[in-house]
Amino acid sequence: MASGGLQLLGFVLAFLGWIGIIISTAMPQWKMASYAGDNIVTAQALYEGLWMSCAMQSTGQIQCKVYDSLLKLESSLQATRALMVAAILLGLVGVFVAVTGMKCMKCMEDDQVKKMRMAVFGGVIFIISGLAALVATSWYGNRVARAFYDPFTPVNTRFEFGSALFIGWAASSLAILGGSFLCCSCPRRETSYPPTRGYPKNASSTGKDYV
């Protein structure tokens, strides 16, 4: 029962992490304008994401523009895109594999060993998915921080961490944690000894032999 609860907890955490990775990938707030200079602009807020750049007016109206050409983008941004998409696809595979190996599911009930291995394999896939998202978000965040502290970057064009980065960090951590729980949820095999056979008892002699 304890291993089943740990397995269910691991799957829920990993699934929530996978959903968070999808949300983080789709959000345009990967970095936001800092406005750290003297000329503070309050009329709009600028955001940039993996797929588009957006500007939010003071009235609440948001205007977004999708990046025109893939070839014109920086190689680092393309790599970040690829890692996040790979994390989403791996998480999708991990969901199906982990569900198959869950104890509460009726799939593969005849072979508990294979069912156990499917749960562990699903946990490994979730860990790889979380690591891919963690590398992508950390790499992007490092680029934002380096550009912010670069003295050659104009003050009015500096960016800070956006909310999508924080969601991505939290989601990747949940995916890794949930995958680890899935890998640790399988009970250890106990050493089974063959049952001891009792020696046959000699028939008690009555002391009388019949011919």
UniProtKB/TrEMBL annotation:
Keywords for the protein's UniProt record, in alphabetical order: Cell junction, Cell membrane, Membrane, Tight junction, Transmembrane, Transmembrane helix
Record membrane topology: Multi-pass membrane protein
Pfam families assigned to the protein according to its UniProt record, in alphabetical order: PMP22_Claudin
Domain of life: Eukaryota
Keyword Transmembrane helix annotated: yes
InterPro entries referenced in this protein's UniProt entry, alphabetically: Claudin, Claudin1, Claudin_CS, PMP22/EMP/MP20/Claudin
Gene Ontology CC: one annotated term: plasma membrane
Bilayer-crossing regions: 7-27, 79-99, 119-141, 161-184
One Gene Ontology MF term: structural molecule activity
Location within or outside the cell: Cell junction, Tight junction; Cell membrane
Function: Claudins function as major constituents of the tight junction complexes that regulate the permeability of epithelia.
Family, as annotated: Belongs to the claudin family.
Name listed for the protein in its UniProt record: Claudin
